[in-house]
Amino acid sequence: MVRVRFAPSPTGYVHVGSLRTALYCYLYAHHHQGKYILRIEDTDQSRLVEDAVENLLREMEWTGVIHDEGPSHLDGEIKDLGDFGPYTQSHRLEIYAGYVQRLVEEEKAYACFCSKERLDGLREQGHHGYDGHCRNLSLEEAKKRIEAGENHVIRLKMPRDQELVFEDLVRGRISMNSDDSDDQVIQKSDGFPTYHLAVVVDDHLMEISHVIRGEEWLSSTPKHLVLYDYFGWERPYFAHLPNILNIHRKKLSKREGDVSVSDFRNKGYLPEALVNFLALVGWNPGDEREIMDMDEMIQSFSFERVSRSSGIFDIDKLNFINNHYIRQADNKRLFDLLPKDSLEDADEAHVLEIIELVKEKVDRVNDLLPYIEEFYKDELVVEEEALEILRESHVAELLQVFADKLGQLENYDKEGIKNAIKECQKELKIKGKQLFMPIRVGISGTMHGSDLVTTIALLGRERVIHRLDQAREVL
Ligand code: GLU
Predict the structure, then answer these.
(1) Which residues line the pocket of ligand 1, CB cutoff 6 A?
(2) Cβ–Cβ contacts within 10 Å for residue 465, how many?
(3) Which end of the chain is more exposed for a tag (fewer CB within 10 A), N or C?
């Protein structure tokens, strides 16, 4: 059974890089009919953020990357779903303590009493990590000092000069000599485990088959291998995912723009677009497809097509994909996503028709607003480049005749508007651009726009005639 976990530390927001990790975990698990698990890694008590888990759950629910096990919204509360809980590390402290104790008893880990000053001193002398000062204290002596209340941490006793090798599903064979790592702290002086210990214990107890995570954890993996071996546990498979860089090949950082899922959500990106886009940052389906829904991605996903080199976060591509999903989206859904302040007096059915007309033009949902607002403005503002069109000699008469015809229409609808344009063509003997451009500029002030007849219909008779009047005054 494939069991995969996403194990974020709750920082208060979800970085798009984390979302991509979660997504690959999800795709891999579903591809293999396995389980996708969410685990909260909150053992670093100094970095706790209020409501971080709540935010995390909300963001992940929005993306549609939904876990099968782990903390979940159930009956209006956050409760554990699944049989391998608790799924929050701070609720598992006794479990870790037991395993740390076991390693100490077996002399695979040891208590270290070195003071902060001593450790700082080592660093200043240019020592690479801990020097093993307490490594050979006898178990009895250590116990005595602990009983006497002496401050201490527990360190892993790394094997000496041992080749630590594993086969990474993305990066191939990875090997490291155990001497390249110092004796890591596995339990802090406050009794909390460190990441290295907790991650291995949990992955084992939760029967995780594949550890899928960012490549920043690659150098930690050999230490984890030692722990698996010391406990006599079977190792999981490992897959380390490439970084995501911006187009300047730098890390995506908060300082340089949007990095969190909520940033993109607030700007008007649709979750299916963000997810589709992120899947392709570092992976491809082996063909030219760029638009893929979740089921297609699940079908096609494999680590063979995850790239070893960094993925690039290309916002133009995200915009292209978002535009695609906006065009496909239900108009009411788009309407519900819009901030409504400027649309207070607008009739919903009318706005929905406008959205249908203009949505192909926008890359982000929020960009619909200026297009919609345009339909509620009485004033005609003529763009500089469009002025020339209005100045052509036949235009004043055309706009006058057209406005009169619209005024006389029994039914102001697309049919009627089309006829009015046709009649202008016949009576004034003008056609093509000569006919359509002045009308377009006359009703909208610009030379580009959506379908002309629909635009005129949705603007409404009064507003159109008023604008045509203004256009003639510009002349
Ligand atoms: N808690 C780690 C993080 O924040 C998880 C790393 C892992 O998946 O092992 O990314």
Answers:
(1) 7-9, 41, 199, 213, 217
(2) 17
(3) N
In angstroms, rounded to a whole number, what is the distance separating the alpha carbons of residues 243 and 252? Answer: 9
Q: What is the secondary structure of 292-342 as a DSSP string?
A: --HHHHHHH--GGGB-SSPEE--HHHHHHHHHHHHHHS-HHHHHHHS--GG
Residue range 137-153: mean pLDDT, rounded: 96
Cβ–Cβ < 8 Å for 128, 182 = yes
Ranked by mean pLDDT, the top range of 48-57, 264-273, 466-475 is 264-273
Task: Output the CA 211–ligand 1 centroid distance in Å.
Answer: 10
Supply the pTM of this predicted model.
Answer: 0.93
Q: For 257-287, how does the pLDDT look when each residue is reduced to its tens digit (9 = 90+)?
A: 789 999 999 999 999 999 999 999 999 999 9
Is the model's pLDDT at 50 over the cut of 90?
Answer: no
What gap in Å lies between CA 251 and CA 247, rounded to an integer? Answer: 10
Q: Can you list the pairs that 325-330 forms with residues at least 24 positions away whose Cβ atoms lie under 8 Å?
A: 325/270, 325/272, 325/273, 325/276, 326/270, 326/273, 326/359, 326/362, 326/363, 326/364, 326/365, 327/359, 327/360, 329/270, 329/359
Report the SS3 class of residue 12.
coil
Q: By C-alpha distance, which of 183, 334, 189 is closest to 268?
A: 334
Q: What residues are labeled active site?
A: 254
CA distance 3 to 22: 13
Q: Which of 49, 199, 203, 238 to mutate to test the pocket of ligand 1 (most atoms within 8 A of CB)?
A: 199
Distance in angstroms (rounded) separating the CA atoms of residues 224 and 130 = 18
**Residue 120: helix, strand or coil by DSSP?**
helix
Q: Of 392, 464, 400, give the one whose Cα is nearest residue 427.
A: 400
- In the predicted model, is pLDDT for residue 47 greater than 80? no
Encoding tokens for residue 13?
């927001």
User: CB–CB of 72/279 below 8 Å?
Assistant: no
pLDDT in tens, 343-378: 888 899 999 999 999 999 999 999 999 999 999 999
pLDDT number for residue 345: 81
